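Batch manifest, entry 17 of 40.
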Amino acid sequence: MHWILLRGLTREQAHWGAFRERLEQAFPEHHFHAVDLPGTGVHFRDPSPGTIAAIRERVQHQVSHIPKPYGLLALSMGGMIALDWAQHVSEGEIQALVLINTSSGFSPPWHRMRPGTWPRILKMLARRELFDREADILRLTCNREPELVTMKHWYSIQRQRPVSVGTAWQQLRAAASFTPNQRRPLPDALLLASKADRIVHWRCSEALEQRWQWTLKLHPTAGHDLPLDDPEWIVTQLQQWLPR
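Output type: structure tokens
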């Protein structure tokens, strides 16, 4: 099966770090494709649409050359795009759906973005020094102290392929307004959430679990960027869930 990997707000495929390679090692019979959202990565010069549906349509066009069916593994806002995708395709096109620390209009706003997060985000936006800003993002999204090499890597990504303020604003608009339709797209999906996530409350994943009787697994200590905080835990959950 071919997997599409989607990152979240203002992040690109390079922010996965070594996670894709770890997935390839664990699941050699699968193929993993990290895809950039419009306005990020290789598309950083392109404007971003202001709705999840429009972003999803652009991503679908990007991967149209990849053989179907797909598995979708997505983090944060990427999870919204993946869920919308699964709800707007023919039956059988999406065979596996893995959503990590995502949210939707099924949850209250104070769960979708924890109130204590706003002051830190405003402080980060006010920073002019790019290295310090990327280091602050890492410290907010990860619960383990990020390594200097990771900070330098994220700084280098932003220097080479800067995400514009316009893209960030459009993505925020899209994420804030996203509400899935009522139809359950798949009999089961794997919901992975961090109980110590300081950005999105884990109960946003629980809301999807309870609505559609999906599989929810909770990490006790990781932060919002679960693939960076504990990639091995994700691999273990996939190994246990995929045979179903």
